[in-house]
Specification:
By secondary structure, this protein is of the alpha/beta class. The chain is built from 12 helices and 10 strands.
C-alpha cells in the first residue's frame, strides 16, 4: 500500500481514515476494540475522533465517549505508536463548552489527552469555525500546544474558503501555525460545495483533504435501496435526502461498476474519492469487522478511467 505524508510532518499515513464517531454511539467498547484491532492489522493507521462524539446519543451528554474508548484501547492494546491520531475541538458540548477561544482550546486539549490516555495528538482540528474569536487567538493557542509537544500539526473542519485563506494569511503574517488539513463533507452525492468552493482553496493552500460522510451516512454502500429501508435506523434522518433521482442514478452507476470489478459499492465510492485531486484520506466508519473489509479494500482498487467517468457523470450536479 502506498502511504502518504501527513502535512509537513514525517508521519506516513495509509490513505484511509477510520471514523471514530460510532465508538460509544452505535457500537460499544468491546466491538470498537475489535474494529480498531482489525483496522491496524490490515496495515492502516489513521484514526479520527472528536471531543463531541457522541454527545447526541441520549445518556452521552457532554461527549467524550469516543475518545474514552480509544484511550482504553490504547492502554489495552499498546498500539498508540502504531496510530496517527486526530481529534477535534470546538463543537458545542453543552454547559457553555464550545468555541475556539485560547483558554478553551488549551483546557479542551488537556481533557482530550486525558480521555485518550496519550501525551500528544498528531492532528488537532478546529471542528467548527468560530467567528466570534479572532483567528490569531485560535492559532496562538495551537502554537502553545505545539511548543509543549502536545500537538504535532493542526487542521480545519467546516471552514469556508475565505476563512481558510484568512487563517493562512494570519499564520504567515504573525508566524503562527498554519492549518495543514481540511475536513469537509464530500462524497459522490455531496460534491458541489467542495468542488466549487473548497477544492480550489485546498489546492492553493496545499491542504490535505480528509472528507467526512465519505459514504453519505451509509447511502453509498447500497444497503438502502429505498427510503423505507433506512427507516428506524440510526442514520435515517441523514440518509433521507439522498433518495431522489440523482441518488438513484448514483446507486445504479455504483452497481454497474460493482458488477465489472466484483468490488463492494462502499469500496468503489471510496476509491472514487481517492482518485480526486487534494484527497489525502477519506474518513469512513465501521460498526463491525465484516463491514470494515469493504473499507480497507478501497486503496487497492484501481478504477479505470471509464469507470471513474461513469461515476462522475452519474453524480453530476
Amino acid at each position: 500500500m502506498q502511504t502518504r505524508k501527513l502535512g509537513t510532518t514525517n508521519l506516513e499515513i495509509a490513505p484511509l481514515m477510520l471514523g471514530g464517531n460510532v465508538f460509544g454511539w452505535t457500537i460499544d467498547a468491546e466491538t470498537s476494540f475489535r474494529v480498531l484491532d482489525a483496522f491496524v492489522d490490515h496495515g492502516f493507521n489513521f484514526i479520527d475522533t472528536a471531543d463531541v462524539y457522541s454527545a447526541w446519543k441520549p445518556g452521552n451528554e457532554g461527549g467524550g465517549q469516543s475518545e474514552t474508548i480509544l484511550g482504553q484501547w490504547f492502554a489495552r492494546s499498546g498500539k498508540r505508536d502504531k496510530v496517527v491520531l486526530a481529534t477535534k475541538v470546538g463543537m458545542d458540548l453543552g454547559n457553555g463548552k464550545k468555541g475556539l477561544a485560547r483558554q478553551y482550546i488549551l483546557d479542551a486539549a488537556e481533557a482530550s489527552l486525558k480521555r485518550l490516555q496519550t501525551d500528544h495528538i498528531d492532528l488537532y482540528q478546529s471542528h467548527l469555525d468560530d467567528e466570534s474569536i479572532p483567528l490569531d487567538e485560535t492559532l496562538e493557542a495551537y502554537r502553545a500546544l505545539i511548543e509543549q509537544g502536545k500537538v504535532t500539526i493542526i487542521g480545519a473542519s467546516n471552514y469556508t474558503a475565505p476563512r481558510l485563506h484568512e487563517a493562512d494569511k494570519i499564520s504567515k503574517l504573525k508566524s503562527l501555525p498554519a492549518y495543514q488539513t481540511l475536513q469537509p463533507e464530500y462524497n459522490l452525492y455531496d460534491r458541489q460545495n467542495f468542488e466549487q468552493n473548497l477544492q480550489p482553496a485546498a489546492k492553493e493552500l496545499n491542504l490535505g483533504v480528509v472528507p467526512y460522510f465519505s459514504l453519505a451516512s451509509g447511502f453509498l454502500t447500497g444497503k438502502y435501496k429505498t427510503k423505507a429501508d433506512s427507516e428506524g435506523k440510526n442514520r435515517a434522518a441523514r440518509v433521507a435526502k439522498y433518495f431522489d433521482d440523482r441518488g438513484m442514478k448514483i446507486l445504479k452507476a455504483l452497481d454497474q461498476v460493482a458488477s465489472e470489478t466484483g468490488a463492494k459499492q462502499a469500496t468503489i465510492a471510496l476509491a472514487w474519492l481517492l482518485a480526486q485531486p487534494t484527497i489525502l484520506a477519506p474518513i469512513a466508519s465501521a460498526t463491525s469487522v465484516d463491514q470494515l473489509e469493504a473499507l480497507v479494500a478501497a486503496p487497492s482498487l484501481d478504477l479505470t478511467e471509464a469507470q471513474l467517468t461513469t461515476l462522475t457523470e452519474a453524480s453530476a450536479y
